[in-house]
Structures are given as C-alpha cells and as structure tokens.
Amino acid sequence: EDQVTQSPEALRLQEGESSSLNCSYTVSGLRGLFWYRQDPGKGPEFLFTLYSAGEEKEKERLKATLTKKESFLHITAPKPEDSATYLCAVQALGQAGTALIFGKGTTLSVSS
Amino acid sequence: DTGVSQDPRHKITKRGQNVTFRCDPISEHNRLYWYRQTLGQGPEFLTYFQNEAQLEKSRLLSDRFSAERPKGSFSTLEIQRTEQGDSAMYLCASSQTGNQPQHFGDGTRLSIL
Predict the structure, then answer these.
(1) pLDDT band at residue B100 using 50, 70 and 90 as cut-offs
(2) Which of A25, B5, B51, B92 is disulfide-compatible with B72, CB 3.0–4.6 A?
C-alpha cells in the first residue's frame, strides 16, 4: 500500500535556527513528490515538485531534496513567517493526474 | 489566474440535512480534484474529473456523496443525509495536466450539529 510518513509531527525553532523536516514514502513507483505549505484555515499552497532521486529544488529559505525512499525539506535561518504546517505528498506511477497521497504534516513554529 | 475558488467557506448544518459545495478551478485547468481533510490529518482523495468526466472515485466516497462537473467548468460536491463523521474541511484542487502540481482552494469547512 502506498504510504507517506512525516516526522517530526511538530517542531519548534528559534528564529535563525536551521533544521530539516523528513518525509518517508512507500510507493509502487514514484511519479512525483510534492511539498505544500498550509496555514491555519487555508488550503495547501504548492511549494515544490521532485521527480527523481538526487533532484533538489530551492525557494528562498527552503530547499527540498529527494532520495529513493525519502525527501527532506531543509529550512535555513527560518523566520516567524515560516510558521505553518508542511505537507508532503506522492503521486504514484499509473495514477497520472489523480490522487495525491499525503502525510499528516509537520507543524513548524518559529519564534523570534 | 485568480486561483481555485470554493463556496461557501463555512457550512453549519443539522445531521440528516443535504449540503452542496461549489468549486471554481483555475481557468484552463481541465483536471479537478476533491479532497477531505480532518484535524491533524493530511488531505484524503475523494474524486477526480478530467473535463466533465469523473474518472476516479475513492472508496471514501460513499453513496451519500455525489460530484458533478457540468461542461467541464465548475464542480459541485453534494452530501446527502449528513452524519457527524462528515464534519471536515472539503478541499478542491485543479491542475493543467496530470504531471503538473495540483493547486488548492481554501476549502469549505463543514460542521454537523
């Protein structure tokens, strides 16, 4: 069964304290891995898509990486406005254009 | 590009009533998805349209749920005879192709009294 596990469930950081979020996945064949940010009461906001092991994507203080079994979202020198829930999702081969399978998310809190 | 729009944002209803939600996707996105999200969980897939055709349904989509996308534009999700367990955030997403990322609306939060 295709599955996504995110850790930790919650992470508290001081402003400027870099860290990483983990997304482990089990999928019959990976079409793509997606990272989203979700603020309270809002829908998920797309951040990155990764398609193959070794691929990396960057946006401001965020960098996403992918291996054959997991993905990391690295946050460098976070600011309070980076506080949100970060969701990881996979799309399996043979399901193009269909279901994203999400993890439960990591809730990040950054204090000044 | 005004984003995915969902209406209403909040719906409170009594158990046993019928409710209908609307989703307007990003223009020219021919793929439209419905997901359900409960507190502390990631979104769970419900159903998917390519243009007006409903191509996939999750087993989560009981026979009390029905979705339509007439003319391949907006979509509606109806829940009949609502139950306490239907309380959740209902999210709509759209994408241009199967390989493009899905973009989400801000959802409709359903509360069952």
Answers:
(1) confident
(2) B51
Tell me: pLDDT of B37 over 90: yes
Averaged over A63-85, what is the pLDDT? Answer: 98
DSSP state of A111: E
Chain B touched by A40 (CB under 8 Å): no
Alpha-carbon torsion (B10, B35, B103, A53), positive or negative: positive
Average pLDDT of the segment spanning A92-111: 88
Residues in B touching A46 (Cβ below 8 Å)? 101-104
Q: How far apart are CA A104 and CA B52, in angstroms?
A: 31
> What separation in angstroms does the CA of B112 have from each of A87, B14, B18, B88, B107?
26, 5, 11, 9, 16
